[in-house]
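Example record

One chain of 156 residues, shown exactly as stored in the release files.
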Amino acid sequence: MVKQSGLRRASAEALTQFELLIVIGVVAVLAALLVSVTSAMRARAQRLQCTANLRTLYNAANLYVQQNGSWPQISMEDTGDSSFQDYARGWIAALAPFGPTQQTWICPTIQNDKPTSPYEFARRPWFIETADVHGHGNLIIFSDGSVSDLKTVNRR
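Predicted structure tokens for this chain:
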């Protein structure tokens, strides 16, 4: 009789299949939530890194202007893709003494070897991403150092 009492106690303490399925379901839901939160955090971190890169380029351009008295004059000829690469390399070389590396010019979301190139608009220099990779329009840094995305700028 002592043996039966021990078996009853062991079976009463064990998980039933239903309870086990509930535990597995809860763990699966928590894992799904964690994956979505992690991807959102990664996207936010990439956007922040891109913003930091733009600010680094902005500061380097300001230092260049202070030292040389003008905005960098990088010529671009309309001779195809190789001239774009030469234009990009010219910008990288011009601002490199002031801190930015080639990696500074590349959005962490894109992660390729084609650097983002700056544009000049209305005689006021500013830098802009080459594509809307963060979902809110291209990130842009203005001549006053503020960073925004094009969707926000277009709403104003």
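Notes: The first helix runs from residue 2 to 13.
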